[in-house]
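Help wanted!
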Amino acid sequence: MMASEGVPFSMFLVMMAVFVASMILLGWYGYRHTKDNQQFLLGRNKANALLIALSYGATFLSASAIIGFGGQAATHGLGLMWLCFLNLALGLFVPFVLFAPRVRKIGRALGASTFADLLGKIFKSNWIRGFIAGLIIIMMPIYGAAVMKGGVNTLVVLTGTMDLYNIILIILAIVVGLYVVYGGIIAVMYNDVLQASVMAIGMVVILAVTLYTLGGFTAAFNSLSDLTASAGTLPGFNGFTGYPSFGTPEWWTLTSTFLLGVGIGAMTQPQLVVRFMSAKDDKMLNRSLIVGSIFMFIVVGCAYTVGSMTNVYFFNEYGQTAFPYVTGTLGQGVDFIIPNYVLDVFSGVSLGEVFICVFILSLLCAAISTISALLHTIGVAGGHDIYSIFRSRKSKEQKMEDFQSLKVNRIVTAIVMVLVVVYCYLMPNDIIAKATSLFMGMTAAALLPLMVYGLYSKAPKTKVAAASMGVGTATYLFWALFINAGSSIFLPICKWLTGNKVLFMDSNIMYVDALIVALPLSALTLLIAFAWMRWVTPKISKAGSEKKGTTKQ
Amino acid sequence: MTFFGLTDPYIIGAYVGCILCVILCCGWAILKKDKIIDEKEGEE
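Answered by r_m:
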C-alpha cells in the first residue's frame, strides 16, 4: 500500500514502529522508577545537565515553533529571527540564571512539587495555588491542542494520509497518554532527550538541503531580497529580508503578538519551571545552558531561516511565494507551508524519502515532547494541586497540606488527554502560532510579576500577589477577547455582543497584543500594592491603635 | 554593509544577537563558580 502523495507507507510504518517502541521502552523505564507520587511529580531530583537542557529545550520548542512559526516566517519574513533571539535571551538565559537556582532552593525548602504548589507555598495561600492550577487546567489544553494539531497535520500531509487524520490523532494521543500516565516525569524527561536529538538532526538536515538547493546563504538571501510579494501580510511589510515599518499593522502584529507575546511569555511556563525543581544542583543548571543554547539556536534558527527561504524555492518552482502558493493554489493554511516545502524539496534529492521520514520524525518529536510535558503539568495541576486543596478544605485544620495520590494524578492526566483531543476538533485551523502566543501571553501577564516578587522578596504578601494576578488576568482576557483581532477568534464574545469582531475596528489598536497592555499593568499593580502594604498600611494601623489607646485613656 | 546578502540592520542584528546569546550562555556555564550549598539534599 502506498500513500497517495508522500513517503512510501511501509517505510513510514517501520519508522513509526521503531519510534513508538522507543517511547514505550522509556515509558516503561519511567514506570519502573516511579515508586511514589513525589517521583511521578518531580522524578528523583538528580537530573543532570544534559537531561535538563534537552528536556527543557524539547518541551519549550514544540511543533508550534517549527511548523506554526516556521509558516509565519514564510509569510512575514526574517523579522521572526528576533523571536529566536528572545527565546535564547528571555526563554533560556534569564530563567536559568535568575529564576532556576531560587526555584530549586525555595522549592525544596518548602517541599513544593508543582508550579502552582511552589507559588502557593511561597505566598502561603491555597487561593493562589488554586487560581494558578485553574489557569493551567483551563488555558493549557488550548496550547496542547494546537501543538497536537500541528504534529498530526504535518504527518498526514507528508505521508499523504489525510483520510487517516482521526485515527492518527487518536493513536498519538493514546501513546503519549500511556507513557505520561504510567511513567510520570521520568518517562517524560527521558523521552524528551530522545526527541530533542531527533529534532536537532532533522532541522540540520533540512537547512543543509535548503542551502544546497538554493546555492548557499548569500545566494538564498539575495534571491529572497528580490521577492516583493506581500500576500498574507499587513500594511507596513518591507519584504522578507526587512523589518516592518514602525507603528504599522504589520509591525504591531509581528512585534507584539509573535515576538513579545511568545518571547516574554516563555519565562513563566509552568511545564518549564518544574524542570528546575528536578535538577540535582545549581551546577547542573548552569552547565545545561551550553547544550540548551546550542540546541535552541539550531532548531529555532533553522526553522525560521528555512521558513523564509521557502519563498525562494516556491517562486523558482511555481512562480509564487509560499503564502499564495500553499493557501491559494493548494488550498491549505499557513501551518502547511513547511510540510509542503519538505515534501517538495526532498522529492528531488537522492534518498529524499529517508530525509522526509527523518523530518516527519523530528516534527513528531517536537509535538510529542511538548504535549507530554503539558499533559503532565495539567494532570498534576488537577490531580495534585486541586486535589490537595479539596482535601485540605475537608480536613478540620484548614491549613496548606499536600495529599499525595499517584492514582488520582494518573486518572486526571488520562482525562486531560481526552480533553486535549476534544479541543483539537473544536479549534479552528491555522491557529498554532496564535494559540501558543495566547497561552504564553496569558501566563506572563498573570504570573510573571508575581513570580519575580515571590522568588526575590523576603516576606512576600499574599494580597500584593493577588492584586497583580487579578489585574493581569482580567486585563489580558478583556484585551484578548474585545480589542485584539487575532485572539478574539478563540471565543468571539465581542461579535456576539456588538456584532463586530473587536471594539475598535479600522484602528491599529486591534493589532496590539494583550500582553503589551496586561503585563505592564500587572507589574504596576504589584508595585503599587507593595508600596501600599509597606508604607501606607502600617501608618493606618499605627494611627488606628493610637486612636484606640487615646479613647481608652 | 552586507551579512551573507542581508542588508537590513534589524535582521542582521537578530542573527548577531542570537550568536552572542549562545556565546553568553556557554560563557556563563563555563565561568560561573557554583556555590556548594545544600548539595546533599540533591543526592538520593
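OP: Thanks! One thing I noticed: Chain A is about 75% helix and 0% strand.
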